[in-house]
Amino acid sequence: MRIKNGEDLSKLRKSIMQKRDKNRRLITVCGGTGCRAYGCEDLIAALKNEVEKSGLKGKVEVKATGCPGFCERGNLVVIYPEGIFYQRVKTEDVPDIIKETIVGKKIVDRLLFVDQVTGQKVTYEKDVPFYKKQTRLLLGNNGIVDPTDIEDYIVIGGYSALAKALSTMKPEKVIEEVKKAGLRGRGGAGFPAGLKWEITRKAKGTQKYVVCNADEGDPGAFMDRSLLEGNPHSILEGLTIGAYAIGASNGFVYVRNEYPLAVQNVTLAVEQARERGLLGEKILGTDFSFDVEIVRGAGAFVCGEETALMASIEGARGVPKQRPPFPSDRGIWGKPTNINNVETWANVPIIIEKGADWYSKIGTKGSKGTKIFALVGKINNTGLVEVPMGTTISETVYGIGGGIPNGKQLKAIQIGGPSGGCIPKTFIDVPIDYDELKKLGGMMGSGGMVVMDEDTCMVDVAKYFLEFLLEESCGKCTTCRDGIERMLEIVTRITDGNGTMKDLDTLSELAEVVRDASMCGLGQTSPNPVLSTLRHFRDEYVAHIKDKKCPGRVCKALITYSIEKDKCTSCGACKKRCPQGAISGEKGKPYKIDPSKCIRCNVCYETCKFGAIKKE
Amino acid sequence: MAATCAAPTDGIPKTVDKILGKYNSDKKWLISILFDIQNEFRYLPREALQYLSKKLDIPMTDVYSIATFYKAFSLTPRGKHSVTVCMGTACHVRGSLSVLEEFERQLEVRPGDTTPDKMFSLSTVSCLGCCAMGPIAVVDEKYHGQVTANKVKPLLDAVKKADAGAAAKKAA
After folding, report:
1. What CATH fold (topology level) applies to the domain A150-359?
2. Contact A291, A280 (CB under 8 A)
3. Hey, are the CB atoms on A374 and B131 less than 8 Å from each other?
4. Which among B32, B74, B130 is the top mutation candidate for probing chain A, defined by the most A β-carbons within 10 Å of its own β-carbon?
5. What confidence tens digit (pLDDT) does each residue in A424-469 have?
6. B128 CA: distance to closest CA in chain A (Å)
7. How far is residue A331's CA from residue A346's CA, in Å, rounded to a whole number?
8. Which has more pLDDT, B142 or A177?
9. Which of A3, A260, A552, B99 could cysteine-pair with A457, CB 3.0–4.6 Å?
10. 3-state secondary structure A383-425
């Protein structure tokens, strides 16, 4: 059924609300990719089954929602109308949830979240510190809507920003509003979105394109996946408003193939939006027509770079091109094209709905709004965290993230993926925004924030990113293709214990050449992990070179495994698991590791329950 | 004999035609077309690429160039079961390398390769975005979280056991 105009949309919203009983019991379960690894699909099926078995069909609804971001505690279950929050829920817990909470109106104590700081149990979702300390403009809706149901999005006010823009604002006014809001591209570089739109609008040509870049390739970043799979209509609404402002009649969502659920949900969302007349000819009864195609990536990190992405949409090799001409001038098939990433588009409906004045109050002078970070690595509360720009690293890591597990010390934060840098703990009180991070040798990137503790080797981290970039360099520029490989050779030499102090100078010099002489963003930023670790963690490089020691106990050539006599119970578990037959011993006596046979695979270390394996 | 040899090659043009129909034989969908071909055959057979090149009027060098540029495509047959180890940053700092190495030892193949009996293909991925569960290994589209080197063998054994069970059921 097509929605004819804005008024029709409001009517539909009201009728959906009336249809839904406010006091009905609703059980939501996170259905995101992360929770699928926890078995949420089985959990949802079990809940539905139990509801039916208990004769509650029609009275209790079970709904799979998008990812609310608290991945650490999956599976996540919320029971409405009260908002009771259960975490780490397993299929076995289902009978208790239905019997105790749904029927008996009692809380199942063991499923409650325990606040790490106060030790107190938290009953309601709104009181969970992880959520409470965030500003969840974008992520907030993920836990409420069923991403496969357009009515769920409409009922929370979805598409009203589009209706507002189409019926009350000229395209120039929309651009003006986005400019005034101070929205900067969330994909990494932070280019002002409104300005980009204006340039594309003013470009000559009748055929123009808008693109949603969902080729989220930074390892450790998954906010775009979460938004696209959890609330796909919000992205489509933003993209459609952008198309109206720019004067584009066609759009693309270029999504990573490694995100099958996102592909599935956004494809379905496009179909539903078309059925309702929110995409296609004469949207909401106006003269504006716009449609979207979904294009899957095929596993190439460089396709996140806009010129490579456009080549890939055209069905070619995703190799970057020299700019200018910029996409705004000559993009897909030579036509003016505006590319923004998922999170940027997600902000657009909010800006139009609430106004630039409201939006620009959030954030810092140069960086407005919120930013979603994927807080991962050595952190207690892994997940997606949405905070106002300017929030400090310390508040994010300790206040929301709950600190470092196992009583370990924070060493560094890696922000911005392979293009970003490592920021040492001495800077944790720095407010996070585009400009501050740049000063520290990092960059916002798409928002991956990898927490590293004392067991992380910073030289190994540099090596890790170089290996990644070597694999992902398209090979067009000599400096990037060969420069990364030479840098990797040097860093590998250092981690093997064969480095010299002169290597460090060569490494810096090479890094600068690669940065200055490569064509696209991938090459230009590829030395960042090396440059930032050299700048902030030079002592670790020196320890590898001079002392032949790896302070993080990671680099295999520089560590040895041994068994601590007084802790060994001679249980024999390590011997059984050692793939090399390097461990010997007999009952009653401490076991021994033969260093000449040991390949440092870490299996014994993981196996020993008594902490008797020593790594140094 | 001739009939059994001809069967798969006969099947390729037919399958490719069917896929091309879905995309109106439009060149711009080449990458999606390759995906669909790979879904059918578990890899991109040479005959399929040659046929595609003829039908879409794209030089074989261009088809080959695209099929080798993108990591999602394989030009060699993949195994019955796929094992993918996430090498994302979060998984890396939590020890995914030990997990990968244990898979390499157990399967006796390197990432990108398939075991000689065509049972398992091992590969790596840069990030799946399930960082809370890291290190992650995906076995036949099922995500396994917090994998350690010690959990690798049981994981593979479970797959083999399920296979043996299915074979026994079929025989019965």
Report:
1. Rossmann fold (3.40.50)
2. yes
3. yes
4. B130
5. 999 999 998 888 888 887 788 888 899 999 999 999 999 999 999 9
6. 7
7. 22
8. A177
9. A552
10. EEEEEECCCEHHHHHHHHCCCCHHHCCEEEEEECHHHCEEEEH
8 Å CB contact between B118 and B77? yes
> Looking at the predicted structure, is the pLDDT value of residue B6 above 70?
no
Q: Does B119 touch chain A (CB under 8 A)?
A: no
Whole-number Å distance between alpha carbons of A335 and A340: 16
Amino acid found at A446: S
**Whether A222 and B72 lie within 8 Å, measured CB to CB:** no
Superfamily designation of domain A20-132:
Glutaredoxin (3.40.30.10)
Retrieve residue B12's tokens. Answer: 């390729």
Binning pLDDT at 50, 70 and 90, where does residue B2 land? very low
Instruction: Write out the residue range of the structural domain in which residue B107 sits.
Output: 81-171
Among the partner residues B127, B144, B148, nearest to A606 by beta-carbon distance? B148
Q: Is B95 on the interface with A (CB under 8 A)?
A: yes
Chain A residues whose CB is inside 8 A of the B66 CB are 315-317
In a domain, B76, yes or no: no
The CATH architecture of the domain made up of A370-453 is Roll (3.10)
Report the residue of A296, A602, A605, A615 to disrupt the B interface, i.e. the one with the largest count of B CBs within 10 Å: A602
Q: Is residue B140 domain-resident?
A: yes
Query: Is B138 inside any structural domain?
Result: yes
Using the beta-carbon criterion (under 8 Å), do B29 and A315 form an inter-chain contact? Answer: yes
Inter-chain contact B90–A315, Cβ cutoff 8 Å?
Answer: no
Question: Could you tell me if B167 lies within 8 Å of chain A, comparing CB atoms?
Answer: no
CATH of domain A560-615: 3.30.70.20
Residue B102 falls within a domain, yes or no?
Answer: yes
Tokens of A178: 């986005």
Closest Cα of chain A to B155: distance in Å?
14
Q: Are B87 and B124 contained in the same domain?
A: yes
Tell whether B53 and B87 lie within a shared domain.
no
- What was the pLDDT predicted at A217? 86
Q: What angle do CA B81, B83, B88 make, to 5 degrees?
A: 160
Q: Domain A458-547 falls in which CATH fold?
A: de novo design (two linked rop proteins) (1.20.1440)
Domain end residue (candidates: B49, B69, B89): B69
- Closest residue on chain B to A223 (Cα): B129
Place of tokens 């929110």: A278
Residues B43 and B92 both lie in one domain: no
Given B69, B90, B106, the domain boundary residue is B69
Please give the ipTM for the structure prediction. 0.86
Domain total in chain B: 2
Rounded to whole angstroms, how far apart are CA atoms B28 and A383? 37
What's the pLDDT score for residue A416?
Answer: 87
What single-letter DSSP state applies at residue A29?
E
pTM (2 decimals)? 0.92
